[in-house]
Amino acid sequence: MSALLALLLSLVTLVAPAWALRPLDPAAGVVEVLQMPVATAQQPCWRQAEQQIWEPWLEKQSGYRGRELLWDPERQQAVVLVGWASQAAWDAIPASSISRTEARFDRVLRRCLGNGASKPLPLQRTGSLQPLISNADTSSNFSSSSTSDPTR
User: Fold this and answer.
1) pLDDT at 26
2) Is 7 in contact with 125 (CB distance < 8 Å)?
3) Is 138 helix (H, G, I), strand (E, B) or coil?
4) Residues 42, 131: Cα–Cα separation, whole Å
5) What whole-number distance in Å separates Cα of residue 34 and Cα of residue 80?
6) Which long-range contacts (CB under 8 A, 24 or more apart) does 113-116 make?
7) Position 23 confidence tier, pLDDT thresholds 50, 70, 90
8) Residue 10 pLDDT more than 60?
9) What are phi and psi of 118, to 5 degrees?
10) What does the pLDDT read at residue 137?
11) N or C end of the chain: smaller count of CB under 10 Å?
12) What backbone phi and psi angles, to 5 degrees, belong to 78?
């Protein structure tokens, strides 16, 4: 089991709060996984920036299949799961569009947090998971595929 999958499973099983701005579609072809540090005091600003910046942008992307925001108050960690119809749909998003949206997200965070850091909540890990759904069993099982591309 890869380190990313083990981390995700431990966070998902131990995470108390979870928010679905648009619930993750169980039929998503690939799930993007993002992990970042989010302290208790930062959590309201993080949620606000996610909802204000990333959610409207994601809704406009072809192949977007919902997402889940998970937060572990004990570890002060957040995990964002973003569903995509396929790897190709995810890869088709121009890097320039992602960069502009990320810069807007960081500006909103800095303003809310009163933090001058260029990356107030830097990504610690990124990757993707491939759902394994058989015809006989529609419960979600996942295999892991790691990536160094820290895009949303």
Assistant:
1) 82
2) yes
3) coil
4) 31
5) 5
6) 113/42, 113/45
7) confident
8) no
9) -65, -35
10) 46
11) N
12) -120, 150
Q: Are 89 and 63 in contact (CB under 8 A)?
A: yes
What pLDDT sits at residue 132? 72
CATH code assigned at 76: 3.30.70.100
Tell whether 126 is covered by a domain: yes
Classify residue 109: in a domain, yes or no: yes
Confidence (pLDDT) at 18: 55
What does the alpha-carbon distance between residue 27 and residue 132 come to, in Å, rounded to a whole number? 10
In this predicted model, which residue has the larger pLDDT, 104 or 146?
A: 104
**Is residue 151 situated within a structural domain?**
no
Residue 85 has what DSSP assignment?
Answer: S
What residue numbers bound the domain in which 115 lies?
3-133+140-146
pLDDT at residue 83 is higher than 50: yes
Contact status, residue 102 vs residue 92, Cβ threshold 8 Å: no
User: Count of domains in the chain?
Assistant: 1
